[in-house]
Amino acid sequence: MIKGFILCCLLALVVSACTHYTVLSPAQLSERGTHRYANTSREKVIEACAAALATLGYKVTVKQPESGVVKTAPASIMTSATGGGGYASVTEDGLAWSLVVETSGADVVVHATPRGFRNGSEVQDEKMWVAEVMDGKFRDLWREIDGTLKSERECPYRARQFSTSSG
Question: CA torsion 88→119→77→50, rounded to 10°?
Answer without folding.
Answer: 160
